[in-house]
Specification:
The structure is a single chain. By secondary structure, this protein is of the alpha/beta class. Among the domains are: 86 residues; 141 residues, Trna Endonuclease, Chain: A, domain 1, CATH 3.40.1350. The chain contains eight helices and eight strands. A six-stranded mixed sheet has the order 3-4-5-6-8-7, with helices on both faces. Strands 1-2 form a two-stranded antiparallel sheet. Strand 1 and strand 2 form a beta hairpin. The protein is flat and about 210 Å long.
Length: 409
Amino acid sequence: MSNQEIKCPNCGKVFQVDEGGYAAILKQVHDAEFEKELQRLEDSIDKKKSDEITIATMEQEKSFAEQMKEKDSLLAEKDREIDRLTSQIEKADTEKELAITSAIQEKEQTLFQKEAEIDKLKNTISLKEKDVEIKEKNLLERHKDELRIRDEEIERLKDFKAKLSTKMVGESLEQHCQSQFNQFRMAAFPNAYFEKDNDSRSGSKGDFIFRESSEDTEFISIMFEMKTEMDTTDRKHKNEDFFKELDKDRNEKNCEYAVLVTTLEMDSDLYNSGIVDVSYRYPKMFVVRPQFFIPIISLLRNAALNSLEYKKKLEDIQRQQLDIYNFEQNLETFKNGFAYSFEQANKRFSEAIKGIDNAIDALTKIREKLVTSGNHLNAANNKLDAVSIKKLTNNAPSVREMFEEIKSE
């Protein structure tokens, strides 16, 4: 076993110890230091723990105080909210009670008004029912009178026709209608034309033509045909047997409406009902009994009067269009005449220009010939100036001698 040297820190003496002693010393020193360090650590830990406990306690107390303070604030806020909500609830309850009371009063007032309106309507309905009842009675009475008058008229016509020939029956209906019209002419139709249709150039003719104009504008025209027959006639005619011929006469005489005044088919509920519109068969055609002769004229005339202004405007437009058409025709005629005249003048002008060009060409050629002729004359004149007896007799000595003799004499 080796020995270890240990120096005393106090006296500085060195001594040797074996490993066992050295270990014991180390253990002793270590245990003492350990215990001391442990105690120191325990004290430090206890102090730290005590400080932490104190701090934690203080923080806990502070947090608790803050929580209590916050809780008190929340409780105060809750109390204020509860007070506010309680006040709102009380106010809402008051408003609700007032609204309910007001609605009940308004409802009661509305119900009262409705009841008053219902009573008023009931009274109005009652009055209307009485008025309608009175009107129905008056209407029934009037219809009874009209039916009685119609029946009397039918019986009178039957009796009257029984006493007449077939020709006289027809003529009597025409005379009856003409007489009726003449009775109302001055009062209702002072400016109207109502005469018999005597134009049979097309092979047929109607009985009467009614026309009326305003300021040279014809606004109504009616072709009338009167048809009746004796009750003893074997072959009974129907009203529709005469529709086609009446429509033909209307178109040929340039009438707007066609009216058949008839006593045929006296048992027909259709024709006995009043004015019958048969335009589903032929345009603007009506069938009436004699008692509706004047009413149908008044009805059609009044309807035409309402459209008179439009007819005048239409005629003005048509006249304007005719004037425009005539103007266009005149303009076209003028344009065509002007174009023809221009074409002829242009042709003559071209011919004249061509003639002038030809004349210029001819004159140019004549000028050239005249210039050439002038040149020849100048040349001849020059030659003439150069002519002398000496030159002329140069090759003729005998002639020169003769001239010399004449000259010397």
